[in-house]
Amino acid sequence: MLEKTHYHGTPLLVARDVRGLDGITVAFSARPGGVSTGEYRGLNVSYDVGDEAGRVGANRKLLAEALGVDVDGWVLGRQVHGSTVAHVGPMERGRGGRDHWSGLPRCDGLVTSTPGIALGVLTADCLPLLLVSPGTRSVAAIHAGWRGTIAGIGARGLAGLARWSGAEPADVLAFIGPHIMACCLVVRLDVAEAFRRKFGDEVVESDGGGAFRLDLAKACAKQLESEGADPAKIYYSDECTCCGLDYFSYRASGGITGRQAAIVYMD
Questions:
Q1: Which of 15, 72, 73, 240 could form a disulfide with 26 if both were Cys (CB 3.0 to 4.6 A apart)?
Q2: Span 51-81, pLDDT tens digits
Q3: Is residue 1 pLDDT above 90, yes or no?
Q4: Domain of 175?
């Protein structure tokens, strides 16, 4: 399950009491804390949104201390709302940890079996998905907005984890972090219809007045199950990033805001 906690004053949502997570950290950061100001007020960890680099670096250091994972061990991608999943090894260690441009290019999914590497994705409404294969000691981090979801990034992430590590999809643990939920994710008719065709009626809600709302978590879960994931091993956050002040939200802010991180790490 996912539980709220604090480490060294930094709020985190972490996976606890889940069998198979020995030596593996699964965590989602939030907005409170940090040193950023103005539109980025709080623990903004993105170098690519207009915040001062020094503040972002300080925020990443705070998060790294809370996680117990040095920033030089992080690996992030330069996310583009696509469906590319990259395999990460020792040569990639540190890419994207201390800046944006060294991150893996045009990459929204990361998979590794290398201990000491922390895979991360940054979000501000998009769905963060962290995958863990306890048996093969392999992990993945996936950035899934509605574009990435319709392009199959969740399924590709699980398939990549299975292919590169030999993991059985049914044994993989999946953690869906805070994201914009159906209460706030209103989309155009063409987007709603595309999701209906791919995932079924249950992922789209209509108010009868022409507004269509997407349930990204349901769509993500259906993708994972189509690749063989066990529904009982999919864990969900029940927090909407757009509803309150605990998370950065692109939609709620009008487009100028910071980013929170989803991090998965093996000792």
A1: 15
A2: 999 999 999 999 999 999 999 999 999 999 9
A3: no
A4: 2-181+237-266
256 within domain boundaries = yes
Residue 208 pLDDT = 76
The count of residues in the chain is 267
Name which of 243, 187, 252, 248 is nearest 49 in CA terms.
Answer: 248
Work out how many domains the chain is built from and give that number: 1
Residue 127, beta-bridge partner list: 144
Q: Is residue 17 part of a domain?
A: yes
Element (H, E) at 148: helix 146-150
pLDDT at res. 210: 81
State the angle between helix axes of 216-226 and 189-199 in degrees (0 to 180), rounded to the nearest 10.
30
pTM of the model: 0.98
Q: What is the average per-residue pLDDT within 131-147? A: 97
Question: Does residue 144 carry a pLDDT above 90?
Answer: yes
CA distance 91 to 256: 34
Q: Is residue 204 part of a domain?
A: no
- Specify the DSSP element, H or E, that contains 176: strand 173-176
| CATH of residue 165 | 3.60.140.10
Distance between CA atoms of residues 243 and 214, nearest Å? 15
- pLDDT above 90 for 34: yes
229 Cβ contact partners less than 8 Å away, ≥ 6 residues apart: 158, 169, 170, 172, 174, 221
**CA distance linking residue 126 with residue 177, whole number of Å:** 9
**202 in a structural domain:** no
